[in-house]
């Protein structure tokens, strides 16, 4: 009896050794993240207009309506304006903390660490990327290179094109911004495939410009179709990269605010259509919370979860969101 037990114990040890050995032979694929903000597209518009690329991404993961703007009537209430929305995403907090209430003339409170500072601090070896039609995202909102924002830097930067009047001469109704979005998404797709930065932000602006000019209109619908093609390019870059390398890519596409119900031209208030955004993702590890109206501030902890980053207590205690990824 005693001998049999020893024999069993030895067998168990042997199988554990074998399991351990095979786990060492196949390390877990490296987690990578790219999140895309496409500007000012209400949920009802993204759901009505044909968006085959976003549909294909969500088919392997999920799509859900979500909210922005924070808890109405409390200190966390946040205007449904672009920069406050981006800041809520990249800091996981509402405006009473990140202190961004408008697009210009702002003083972000850098004490609330953005995702890139968190990644740089917790995993210094990660490569950080930004592909953006608005340079202020990097220089002002994230505070790249500023001592008071932690003095960290991106490894891959594609922005400033909207200020390059030689390459993108000003056109009526800012139509050159569509070309900038094209260039930004092409470069994002190319550099994601060739360099595979670990955490990237892509920002595409043109949909918001069209909506401010035309409101709810065939022009806005067409801009959404064009945006979807740009997201499709980025998705192709991710898939090509994933085929060539043992990497586990998380792609999240969202918007920063909806628009007013009457015309679709404006935003900034707390009406249902202005507050209702959406999130599409390829993640196959979504929790039920993803389908129960998540908030834009939930994206930050979800990305940290995917990257395997443990958020330090001094950052975690300020977060207003929770992860929708297991
Ligand atoms: Zn916006």
Derived from helix and strand composition plus strand pairing, the structural class reads: alpha/beta
- Examine the secondary-structure arrangement and name the CATH architecture: 3-Layer(aba) Sandwich
Low-confidence stretches: 9-19
| Helix proportion range | 40-55%
Tally of distinct domains: 1
Mean pLDDT rating = 94
User: What's the SSE pattern?
Assistant: HEHHEHHHEHEHEHHEHEHH
Give the tags.
326 residues; 13% strand; 7 strands
Outline of the structure:
This protein is α/β, with parallel strands linked by helices and 326 residues long. The chain has a single domain (30-316), classed as Alkaline Phosphatase, subunit A. The protein has 13 helices and seven strands.
Architecture overview:
This protein is α/β, with parallel strands linked by helices and 326 residues long. It has a single domain, classed as Alkaline Phosphatase, subunit A (3-Layer(aba) Sandwich). Helices cover 43% and strands 13% of the residues. It is built from 13 helices and 7 strands. The protein has helices at residues 2-25, 43-48, 52-59, 82-91, 95-98, 115-122, 136-141, 176-195, 206-214, 218-244, 272-275, 299-307, 313-316; strands at residues 30-38, 62-67, 128-132, 156-158, 199-204, 247-254, 276-281. It has a 7-stranded mixed sheet, sandwiched between helices. Helix 7 (136-141) links the parallel strand 3 (128-132) and strand 4. The longest helix has 27 residues, at 218-244. It is globular. The model is unreliable at 9-19 (pLDDT under 50). The structure holds zinc ion.
């Amino acid at each position: 009896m005693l001998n049999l037990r020893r024999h069993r114990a030895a067998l168990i040890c042997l199988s554990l050794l074998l399991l351990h050995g095979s786990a060492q032979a196949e390390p877990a694929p490296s987690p990578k993240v790219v999140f895309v903000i496409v500007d000012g597209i209400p949920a009802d518009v993204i759901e009505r207009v044909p968006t085959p690329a976003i549909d294909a991404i969500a088919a392997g993961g999920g799509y859900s309506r979500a909210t922005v703007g924070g808890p109405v009537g409390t200190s966390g209430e946040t205007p449904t304006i672009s920069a406050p929305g981006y800041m809520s995403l990249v800091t996981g907090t509402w405006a009473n903390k990140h202190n961004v209430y408008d697009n210009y003339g702002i003083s972000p409170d850098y004490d609330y660490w953005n995702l890139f500072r968190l990644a740089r601090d917790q995993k210094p070896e990660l490569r950080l990327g930004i592909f953006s039609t608005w340079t202020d995202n990097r220089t002002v909102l994230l505070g790249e290179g500023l001592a008071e924002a932690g003095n960290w830097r991106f490894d891959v930067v594609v922005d400033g094109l909207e200020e390059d009047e030689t390459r993108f001469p000003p056109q009526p109704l800012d139509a050159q911004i569509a070309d900038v979005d094209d260039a930004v998404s092409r470069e994002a797709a190319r550099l994601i495939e060739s360099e595979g930065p670990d955490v990237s932000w892509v920002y595409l602006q043109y949909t918001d410009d069209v909506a401010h000019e035309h409101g709810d209109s065939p022009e806005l619908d067409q801009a959404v179709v064009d945006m979807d093609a740009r997201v499709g390019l980025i998705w192709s870059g991710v898939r090509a990269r994933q085929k060539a390398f043992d990497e586990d890519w998380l792609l999240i596409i969202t918007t920063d605010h909806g628009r007013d119900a009457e015309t679709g031209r404006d935003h900034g208030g707390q009406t249902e259509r202005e507050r209702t955004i959406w999130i599409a993702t390829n993640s196959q590890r979504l929790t039920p919370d993803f389908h129960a109206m998540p908030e834009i501030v939930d994206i930050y902890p979800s990305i940290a979860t995917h990257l395997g980053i443990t958020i330090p207590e001094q950052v975690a205690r300020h977060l207003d969101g929770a992860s929708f990824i297991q």
